[in-house]
Design goal:
219 residues, alpha/beta, 8-stranded mixed beta sheet, 5 helices, 27% helix, 27% strand, globular
Amino acid sequence: MIFIRGKKVLISLGGTFEPIDSVRGITNRSSGKMGLALAKQAYVLGADVTLVVAKVSVKISPLFNVINVETSKQMADVIFDIVGDFDIFISTAAVSDFEVVERKNKKIDSESSLAISLKPTLKIIRQIKSINPDIFMVGFKAEFNITHDEIVYCARKQIADAGTDLVVANDVSHDECNFGSDKNEVLIIDEDVLSVPLASKDEIAKTIMNVICKKISCR
């Protein structure tokens, strides 16, 4: 595990919030538990850890350098500004795929009919290697009720599209593996596929960091 000691590790976590009006918005049920478990493990292994944190349901230790954000754009701006200084980027955040075309600057009357126009958000992970070509990048893919082969295909598509070195993928429709759960079962995918059975997120984090360390040592 010495291969991560002294490395600068950037981890994004939590769910972004895309405003619709002054009080409402689009978000998701990401808790930040997986990202925090990875941060703790990286810290134990001697890494210098920075967190870019959106909406989470976990308490984050002051041991970490934390940058708080709300929207996908804020997260993108922060990450693009600092990622050039890091050795490893782990993208666990559940970043919204869509944002509102025109946000209202007041609370919309609840008696009114409402139609919302959405546009795709910028895919943060696809920009990272153009900023820092040498960074070791880990992506996360949460899918719902698809087959093992489909999950592997989606993960390898991300590798091809974004240049991720490793993808951690899971199906959140499985029992005890939904957003906010304390456990998970994942596939760790690059040219190989490592299946990690149901375990606590702390144990999953140890396995992921072990794989990262081995991959970095082979560079």
